[in-house]
Amino acid sequence: VVLMMFFNFFSHGTQDLYPTFLKKQHGFDPHTVSWITIVANIGAIVGGLAFGALSEKIGRINAITLACVIALPVIPLWAYTTTPFMLAIGAFIMQVAVQGAWGVIPVHLNELSPGSVRATLPGFIYQAGNLAASYGGPYQAGIAEAPGGSYGYALALFAGVVAVCIIVVIRFSPEKRGEVMTVFG
Length: 185
Fold this sequence. Notes:
The model has no long low-confidence stretch (mean pLDDT 94). The chain has nine helices and no strands. It is globular. The protein is an all-alpha fold.
């Protein structure tokens, strides 16, 4: 549940307020905000596919760790540059990393789940983590809207802290890559 809480902080913390950040902090028009968001979502698709496949070669834990490590140096480009082009590049790479990590989670959770509850447990764990992370958006917005705060800072803070937390938690997690997934065997 803790890992899934951090994963939900990672995805929602890098996606939900990003259009607001682009509009409020940078003053971009809806067309520009839409295009940057589309570019980010293309990065998410690329990351999910690439890291899901990569995890078959280097392992689930290593793939998730790599995705989080990639996210860290991208934070300044993603949260602190000012031109639409550079923000779009940062958003693309950030979402490759975030959704790259997410692209591994479904199979990782299934491999860790006992066969008798494999159809239910991963979904329950995901939703419990989502519930635990549900206060992230309001907290992040509160940081952004506080006197002296900014959306860039709130986004960067969440992305950086959560990426490190995922790395720490996942490195201490078991891995059962290649687990034969039978119900009773």
